[in-house]
Amino acid sequence: MSEMRLHDTTGRRLYLNAEERDSFLAAARRQTARDRTLCEVLHWTGCRPSEALEITPARVDLFGGTITIRSLKKRKDASGQQKVVFRSVPVPPEFLDTLDIAHAIREAQKSRKRAVTPIWDISRVRTWQIVTRVMEEAGIPDGPNRSPKGLRHGFGINATVNGVPLHMVQKWMGHAQLSTTAVYADAVGKEEQHIATRMWG
């Protein structure tokens, strides 16, 4: 049984809703190139901050429209050995253009060394500080949802609300079990109303 939750023990949301996601993205686009692209990769891929910090130019497919992310949750194969799992997540072409302009991805891919050097050379703590500052600037009220985790959960909710099949959301988010991803099907508030409206139509 999955322990992942979308609400804390007092019932407060642990995810950004659609309006908050839009506000976050708008605020991110007013930041420096480094902070903007970092916030946008978290927004568009739903990856964990530690996973974002591992992304290299070699993992950006400018033509295929995807970013490949290494799943950092420890997993073992049938023999008990730890296995490395990668997942490719589709992102909007406009974001790839922004990423390329800001970090010279195309040029970096031509260099053996730069191609495998992480795009964002900052710590997890600094990443958390950047994301929460941008959320504050976006006017997102203080609460458990105003965090990188809230952004990740918001990605899962958004994908589910917009009809992305759960097995695909599972792949994009790097969940080992579909039961973990299924938590997003328990979306509430406007998200659940949106799903219900589609059903009634």
TrEMBL record:
Biological processes, Gene Ontology terms: DNA integration; DNA recombination
UniProt cross-references to Pfam families, sorted A to Z: Phage_integrase
GO MF terms, alphabetically ordered: DNA binding
Domain of life according to the entry: Bacteria
Record key words, sorted: DNA integration, DNA recombination, DNA-binding
Domain Tyr recombinase positions: 11-198
PANTHER family: INTEGRASE_RECOMBINASE PROTEIN MJ0367-RELATED, PHAGE INTEGRASE-RELATED
Similarity comment: Belongs to the 'phage' integrase family.
Entry protein name: Site-specific integrase
